[in-house]
Amino acid sequence: MISLRILLLLPALCAAFISLSAELDELWIDDPEAASHAAEEEGRILLVFFSGSDWCILCQNLEDGLFADTSVRATLSEHFTPLQLDFPRKKKLSMAIKHERDQWRTHYKVVAYPTILFLDPKTDQVLFRHEYVDLKPAEYVDKVLKPLSNYLQTSLLKKPSPTPEP
Fold first, then answer.
1. Please, are residues 47 and 117 in contact by the beta-carbon 8 Å criterion?
2. What angle is formed at CA 118 by the lines to CA 111 and CA 150, rounded to 5 degrees?
3. Cα–Cα distance between 84 and 72 in angstroms, integer?
4. Is there a cis peptide before residue 114, judged by omega within 30 degrees of 0?
5. Is residue 3 part of a domain?
6. How many domains does the chain have?
7. Radius of gyration for the chain, computed over Cα atoms and rounded to the nearest angstrom
8. 45 touches 81 (CB < 8 A)
9. The model scores a pTM over 0.90
10. CB–CB of 35/83 below 8 Å?
């Protein structure tokens, strides 16, 4: 028999799970134009995650492990504009979306999944790229994300301060 305490906690647990699921989905933008524009406007590095969500085990490992970690998500949300370009095999994409993603894949010479690119949205320059990494979340933040976010402080990605008029 289910105790009254469990019955009372069940709605709260369901709400927390739904909230967490929505939060996990909120990290990634799936519109390249919107993500590029947001990164440029906000002075952030564009992180592009080329994935095969329904067939690539390593992509799934990154999504469920590294990119689901709260410290990684916090750093990404604070310093980067995350764009996910998914290339599923089972889910059908519209021809326009497939064509747009294929153009990105070709332009950046992506031949393996997962591939993660860090781009300067103003110059389209690839600042860093990697494929699958087997790092713990804290290591990824320290060895990849923090050095790239520090780049923001010394680069032209930051919007220049307005100069005082004479």
1. yes
2. 155
3. 15
4. yes
5. no
6. 1
7. 19
8. yes
9. no
10. yes
Instruction: Determine the Cα–Cα distance for residues 49 and 42; give it in Å rounded to an integer.
Output: 19
Residue with tokens 């860093």: 128
CATH of the domain at 90: 3.40.30.10
User: How many Cβ atoms sit within 10 Å of the Cβ of residue 77?
Assistant: 13
Whether 22 maps to a domain, the answer reads: no
Q: Give pLDDT tens digits along the chain (166 positions).
A: 555 454 444 444 444 433 333 344 589 999 999 999 999 999 999 999 999 999 999 999 999 999 999 999 999 999 999 999 999 999 999 999 999 999 999 999 999 999 999 999 889 999 999 999 999 999 999 999 999 988 776 664 555 555 555 5
Tell me which residue has tokens 């564009």. 46
Residue 115: inside a domain, yes or no?
Answer: yes
Assess if residue 35 is contained within a domain. Answer: yes
Q: What was the pLDDT predicted at 151?
A: 79
Do residues 45 and 154 touch, judged by C-beta distance below 8 A? no
If one counts every other C-beta atom within 10 angstroms of the C-beta of residue 150, the result is: 11
Q: Taking the CB of residue 8, how many other CB atoms lie within 10 A of it?
A: 9
Q: Supply the range of the domain harboring residue 87.
A: 28-152
